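As the next step, I wrote out a protein sequence along with its fold in token form, included below for the reader:
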Amino acid sequence: MAEHINVEHTETYKLLSLLLLTFIVFVFSFYILLFFKLDPVFIVIPFIVTGIFFYSIKRRFITKSKIIITTKWIDVDEKRIEYENILKYRIDWTNKIDVHIKMKNKKSIRLSSNDTFCNTDKFIGMCNDLEKQLNNYKKGAIEIEQTYLNTKLWYYFVIGLSVITVIAFIYGMIKRKDIPTSFLIGLSSLGYLWSSVQYKKNK
């Protein structure tokens, strides 16, 4: 039996609510700046106010759970899920780690943890234990739902895209003598793509 305490996870609608509130605070702060016609030097105020607001309330949108995993069931805050009632599952390993469980009665259960908002270390440890138990239950009786993140094709796709981005960067530097904007955009996207490969590799 494995016991995981204070596992941080979130729900999508809560994160959307947090982002919406943060956006409203930013717009309101910026409007106040324009309304009082303050000196441009105060342009940093909306960003400071928004940052303080975000970091002061984001913990309220995070759930901390006690999760117990055994060879026959998983218990999330005293809500037990028997493996014998699970039809299939999948775990998506990106900066947002998702556990999708589909029950035989057609109901779905989802647990998510995003490293932008949560400390995902305990959640990752929990996922590793859960995946091990689900795979071993009755010698693979529970179906693993495959996604593109679990395939070699995805790995080769990320490598190919990385090569193209580097070539575009070199070409842009030769032609324009500066760093192309497209490279910066591509670099941020590649960071997310490689995070999925790295999580899957190191889990």
